[in-house]
Specification:
The protein is α/β, with parallel strands linked by helices. The protein has a single domain (about 5-210), classed as Rossmann fold (3-Layer(aba) Sandwich). It contains eight helices and five strands. It has helices at about 15-30, 45-55, 65-90, 100-110, 115-125, 140-150, 160-175, 190-210, and strands at about 5-10, 35-40, 90-95, 130-135, 180-185. It has a five-stranded parallel sheet with strand order 2-3-1-4-5, sandwiched between helices. α2 packs antiparallel against α3, α3 runs parallel beside α5 and α4 packs across α7. The protein starts with 5 loop residues before the first strand and ends with a helix. Bound molecules: P1-(5'-adenosyl)P5-(5'-thymidyl)pentaphosphate. P1-(5'-adenosyl)P5-(5'-thymidyl)pentaphosphate binds near residues 11 and 191.
Length: about 210
């Protein structure tokens, strides 16, 4: 049986992850692979309920540690119920955000020590990490403008611009540390050009796999 791969999309708000997911799925399917499309926080019934708590405005003053632990609670369930079974069956898993988002938002954005996040990552993921991550990078101003046109701000989108600058910076540092896994896509371009970059990165990955 073909071995599946785990691909994630990352970036600040409005970077175009949802828009690029469709292209990603198309490329993987055209390569003859069966795939599972999912997202974090969420992806399972429990995860989607946690997502509502995390993104909604009911718990605006939630502590940073509670937020971090809820992200990993959602991830633990997601791995056990969906991601690991799919990979085990040779499926390709395409996930809108994963643990890089935790380093960027809870680490860079909120200021939680990376060592704490690493401890949770090791505990919950037991070595499972994405094989390829596409980081859609653009300025905070452009991202928030795009996100603002799409819908009313959620709990994260209500943060100050400085928060997102730290998130973006953290993402770029993660990419700098792992250039083989994390491919930076210039998401400030027109959609057509962004999709070309996504296609090149995915095709290179598919070629390396075979
Ligand atoms: N979070 C998540 C954490 O804090 N820690 C974690 O561990 C995890 C997993 C999740 C939130 O949770 C946080 C981060 C997030 O704040 P989300 O809904 O997954 O929320 O993430 P968002 O970033 O809010 O998702 P968005 O839908 O806002 O952004 P996307 O998906 O990146 O952007 P998209 O594709 O919806 O595009 C936004 C708009 O821009 C247009 C689209 O048509 C759309 O209208 N657009 C473009 N316009 C012009 N040119 C382009 N190239 C365009 N690309 C897209």
């Amino acid at each position: 049986m073909d071995q599946g791969s785990f691909i994630t999309l990352e970036g600040i708000e409005g970077a175009g992850k949802t828009t690029c997911m469709a292209q990603l799925r198309l490329l993987i399917q055209q390569a003859g692979k069966s795939c599972l499309e999912t997202r974090e926080p969420g992806g399972t019934q429990l995860g989607e309920e946690l997502r509502q708590l995390l993104l909604g405005h009911k718990h605006t003053g939630m502590s940073d540690d509670a937020e971090l632990l809820l992200m990993f609670a959602s991830r633990a369930e997601h791995l056990q119920q969906k991601i690991l079974p799919a990979l085990g069956q040779g499926q390709w898993v395409l996930c809108d955000r994963f643990t890089d988002a935790t380093y960027a938002y809870q680490g860079g954005g909120r200021g939680i020590a990376f060592s704490r996040i690493l401890a949770l990552e090791e505990w919950v993921q037991k070595g499972v990490r994405p094989d390829l991550t596409l980081l859609l990078d653009l300025s905070v101003e452009q991202g928030l403008e795009r996100a603002g046109k799409r819908s009313a701000p959620d709990r994260f989108e209500s943060e100050a611009v400085e928060f997102f600058r730290r998130v973006r910076q953290s993402y770029l540092e993660l990419a700098g540390n792992e250039p083989d896994r994390i491919k930076v896509i210039d998401a400030s371009r027109d959609l057509d050009e962004v999709l070309v970059q996504v296609t090149i990165a995915v095709n290179n990955f598919l070629q390396d796999k075979t």
